[in-house]
């Protein structure tokens, strides 16, 4: 520093002492400056006051010499003390050089800067609030200072500033929020602790409503919650807990929409504490905001659904996620559906542009979120469009929701409970908003069919509930569903028209001429028949599914839908099946279900007495398909008490190729005859006179069997028949036996027998063709 330079009104002694390396001499100079400034204040000489402050700032505090900077800092503090309440007029000039010294490389100088600013702020008190942002910015840097003395000094200054903010009602929160939002993303633990402490202070001040600006800092708070320091995490938990209490007290003033996306992001983090806290917030948001959260359902489901599959290690998160899921589901009501007569909608099976698809399906103003399966929420990309917080009617858009559900159901790695939850959502949406949901049926149907191969019975049961609802909902009748699983299944009518050659000859009564084999129950919609087609197609392509779960699936469908319609439609489809081996296997499965399942009790009773045209039509339809398997055809005749026709069929067995599989099925039929289901048949053996063809049919089966356990079983049963010699009397032929009921005389049994022979001839040709190609093992048995 130039000793000859004029620093008036500072005397040379003051200047010399301010530049001294000893603190005591600089302190003496500060006292002289304080005395000098007091005189200027008394004289109201503002020009000289400004000149002293400027000199101390430019020539000392900002000097290149470290001792000069120290002298300048203590001198500025002395000025502030001398000015007293008038220091507010010069705060900018006093504070700026001190804050510059906060960045000094010398830790001692940074400490002296803290000390000087402490004295300035202590004198000015509330007058420093207009300069709060620069003070806060400087303090946030010192909070992470490596020197313990500097950190200690900054903490004293920090406490003083907090006291001033707490007791003042002039704090500029609007101007402070941008700085807080910036600083809250600091990774330094001390800086984070500093930020959290200030948020706690501001939250405790009654006149400061920090809740209005919570969307600005919520993301940063959740990031701080993941800090490695336990103390910081605990402080952050307290802050978030206080905010949540405030939200519960004043839900009407909360900007739920602006924070929903933040919660969705943090509900998917790998940190358990962050995830649990975010999920708890989400639960409260759904319960407090209600239907206002519906526009964000797709994002919420993306976050919540995977948590439902957590194990006991994350039990708390799983429980809260389950509450979120249930609460969100309850928000969907029938009022969210379209009117009963919506405008025609052109539905494309697959649109390469999801945005265009969404616009076409739900209109240009839908505002529905577009959430893809593999989108990364952690990337910071918003999955929501910020919605207005005004209380306006909420419109539920299903595009995003269905896309999320479809993605989770398609992911085979997803947990069982998540898949069940997805299916519950689909079922709920089909119940509450069927007309909207049927727009998405074409895209959902293939994955719903694929889910039938799931390993879990619970998943399959829920899947069947959804499929059954699709097949029976009246809303499915309003549109042409189009192809559900490939172009080969496309039809031109909402109700398939199935050609049935020779059908008119089955029933001789004119009134029955119009009956068709396709289902006609009003409870079934246009999707029902296509569902049956696709189900059989899946059984055909995945034989293991048919073997392991086929009976289970069909039995459950019979509980959920009309059993008669299911058997009617499947029989009709199998009638046109080109894979004869599959047709035979499928018929055998259906027959076993029909004869043994408790779910089919009513249908069996209907077939026992062919007294109505409907039951006769059902029998004829089943019979035509049952012809793919000779033994099942006989069992159907036994069930319907068509004993004479059963006997005629067995007579034809002599012309068939008798294989091991064939004899195995005869063996199983004998076992079935001994089951409770055929109790009525065994009792009819007591009436030899009226049931000669029943006994003949059973003897026919006995003659087909080799000497086996089944042969012995049936032989013992027939030995119990009384007076077997009456079988050959002419009276039995004249007595109009019950074995061929007069009620079913309208059925052309001769035509049915011809159909049986035709089908079996086809099977024989196919087996010979396979044998010729070398891909079929001849399993004929020489008797």
What are the defining features of this structure?
rod-shaped; about 775 residues; disordered C terminus; Leucine-rich Repeat Variant; mainly alpha; about 60% helix
Question: What does this entry look like structurally?
Answer:
It comes from Pipistrellus kuhlii (Kuhl's pipistrelle). The protein has 783 residues and is mostly helical. The chain is built from 36 helices and no strands. It has helices spanning 12-18, 23-43, 46-61, 66-83, 91-101, 107-124, 132-142, 148-167, 173-183, 189-204, 214-225, 230-249, 256-266, 272-289, 297-304, 315-330, 354-362, 399-410, 416-432, 434-437, 441-450, 457-472, 526-541, 543-560, 563-575, 580-596, 601-608, 613-626, 630-639, 643-652, 660-673, 679-684, 692-704, 709-719, 731-734, 749-773. It starts with 11 loop residues before the first helix and ends in a 10-residue tail after the last helix.
């Amino acid at each position: 520093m130039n000793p000859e330079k004029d620093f008036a009104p500072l005397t040379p002694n003051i200047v010399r002492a301010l530049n001294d390396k000893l603190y005591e001499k600089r302190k003496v100079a500060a006292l002289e400056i304080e005395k000098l400034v007091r005189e200027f204040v008394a004289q109201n000489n503002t020009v000289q006051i400004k000149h002293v402050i400027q000199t101390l700032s430019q020539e000392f505090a900002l000097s290149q010499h470290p001792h000069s900077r120290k002298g300048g800092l203590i001198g500025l503090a002395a000025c502030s003390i001398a000015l007293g309440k008038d220091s507010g007029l010069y705060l900018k000039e006093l504070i700026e050089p001190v804050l510059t010294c906060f960045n000094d490389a010398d830790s001692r100088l940074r400490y002296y800067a803290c000390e000087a600013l402490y004295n300035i702020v202590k004198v000015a008190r509330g007058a420093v609030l207009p300069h709060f942002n620069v003070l806060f910015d400087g303090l946030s840097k010192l909070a992470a200072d490596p020197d313990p003395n500097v950190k200690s000094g900054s903490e004293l200054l920090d406490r003083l500033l907090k006291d001033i903010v707490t007791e003042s009602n002039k704090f500029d929160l609007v101007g402070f929020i941008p700085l807080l939002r910036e600083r809250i993303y600091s990774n330094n633990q001390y800086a984070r602790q500093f930020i959290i402490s200030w948020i706690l202070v501001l939250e405790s001040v009654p006149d400061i409503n920090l809740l209005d600006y919570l969307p600005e800092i919520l993301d940063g708070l959740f990031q701080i919650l993941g800090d490695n320091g336990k103390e910081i995490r605990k402080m952050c938990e307290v802050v978030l807990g206080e905010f949540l209490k405030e939200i519960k007290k004043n839900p009407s003033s909360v900007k739920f929409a602006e924070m929903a996306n933040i919660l969705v992001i943090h509900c998917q983090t790998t940190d358990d504490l962050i995830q649990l806290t975010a999920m708890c917030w989400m639960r409260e948001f759904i319960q407090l905001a209600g239907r206002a959260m519906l526009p964000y359902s797709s994002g919420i489901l993306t976050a919540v659904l995977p948590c439902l599959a957590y194990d006991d290690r994350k039990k708390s998160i799983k429980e809260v996620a389950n509450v979120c899921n249930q609460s969100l589901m309850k928000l969907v009501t029938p009022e969210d559906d379209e009117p009963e007569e919506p405008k025609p909608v052109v539905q494309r099976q697959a649109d390469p542009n999801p945005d265009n698809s969404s616009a076409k399906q739900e209109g240009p103003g839908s505002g529905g979120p577009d959430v893809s399966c593999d989108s990364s929420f952690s990337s910071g990309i918003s999955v929501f469009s910020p919605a207005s917080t005004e209380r306006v009617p909420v419109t539920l858009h299903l595009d995003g929701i269905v896309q999320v559900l479809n993605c989770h159901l398609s992911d085979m790695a997803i947990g069982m409970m998540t898949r069940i939850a997805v299916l519950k959502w689909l079922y709920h949406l089909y119940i509450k908003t069927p007309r909207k949901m049927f727009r998405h049926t074409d895209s959902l149907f293939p994955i719903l069919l694929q889910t039938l191969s799931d390993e879990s019975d619970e998943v399959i049961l829920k899947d069947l509930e959804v499929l059954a609802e699709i097949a029976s909902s009246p809303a499915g009748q309003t549109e042409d569903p189009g192809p559900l699983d490939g172009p080969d299944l496309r039809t031109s009518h909402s109700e398939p028209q199935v050609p049935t050659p020779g059908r008119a000859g089955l029933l001789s009564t004119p009134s029955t001429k119009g009956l068709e084999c396709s289902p006609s129950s009003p409870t079934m919609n246009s999707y029902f028949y296509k569902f049956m087609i696709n189900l059989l197609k899946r059984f055909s392509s995945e034989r293991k599914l048919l073997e392991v779960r086929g009976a289970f699936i069909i039995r459950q469908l019979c509980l959920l839908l009309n059993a008669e319609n299911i058997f009617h439609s499947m029989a009709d489809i199998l009638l046109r099946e080109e894979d004869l081996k599959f047709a035979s296997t499928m018929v055998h499965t259906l027959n076993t279900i029909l004869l043994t399942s408790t779910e089919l009790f009513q249908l069996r009773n209907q077939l026992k007495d062919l007294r109505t045209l409907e039951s006769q039509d059902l029998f004829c339809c089943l019979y035509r398909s049952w012809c793919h398997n000779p033994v099942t055809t006989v069992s159907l005749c036994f069930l319907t008490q068509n004993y004479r026709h059963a006997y005629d069929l067995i007579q034809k067995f002599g012309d068939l190729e008798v294989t091991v599989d064939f004899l195995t099925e005869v063996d199983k039929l004998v076992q079935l005859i001994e089951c409770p289901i055929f109790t009525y048949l065994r009792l009819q053996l007591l009436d030899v006179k009226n049931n000669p063809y029943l006994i003949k049919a059973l003897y026919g089966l006995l003659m087909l069997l080799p000497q086996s356990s089944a042969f012995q079983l049936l032989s013992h049963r027939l030995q119990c028949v009384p007076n077997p010699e009456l079988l050959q009397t002419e009276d039995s032929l004249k007595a109009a036996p019950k074995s061929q009921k007069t009620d079913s005389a309208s059925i052309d049994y001769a035509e049915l027998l011809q159909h049986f022979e035709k089908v079996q001839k086809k099977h024989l040709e196919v087996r010979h063709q396979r044998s010729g190609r070398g891909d079929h093992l001849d399993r004929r048995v020489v008797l």
